Task: inverse folding
């Protein structure tokens, strides 16, 4: 079982890093909005991570509304991420029509290592 208190402290640390990284990505997107799916993938991953570290549920529809891509493209990407073991999708407890999305536990650890590496590389962030 996961220690909720230690996960909460780590979540707070990573929530701040995710929000910082989203600001950087937003500045990148303002400079040059690439139509490729690589930016979309990162946008989706950061949205999911932010919600997860904030202790909130994020559903597929929220993601579709929040990113600058068509619904079909976003749904395909989420399905691909789930198929690759990057995210987990599950039905909402009280509403079987709603699918909630979280980072897969294994990927979340890699994602946190990535964020830790960013802090080590750019210590003034």
Result:
């Amino acid at each position: 079982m996961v220690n909720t208190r230690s996960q909460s402290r780590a979540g707070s640390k990573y929530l701040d890093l995710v929000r910082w990284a989203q600001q950087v990505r937003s500045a990148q997107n303002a400079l040059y909005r690439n139509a490729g799916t690589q930016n979309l993938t990162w946008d989706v991953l950061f949205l999911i991570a932010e919600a997860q570290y904030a202790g909130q549920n994020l559903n597929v529809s929220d993601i579709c509304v929040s990113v600058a891509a068509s619904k079909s493209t976003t749904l395909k990407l989420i399905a691909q991420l789930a198929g690759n073991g990057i995210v987990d999708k599950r039905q909402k407890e009280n509403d079987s029509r709603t699918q909630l999305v979280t980072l897969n536990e294994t990927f979340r650890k890699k994602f946190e290592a990535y964020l830790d590496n960013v802090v080590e590389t750019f210590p003034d962030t």
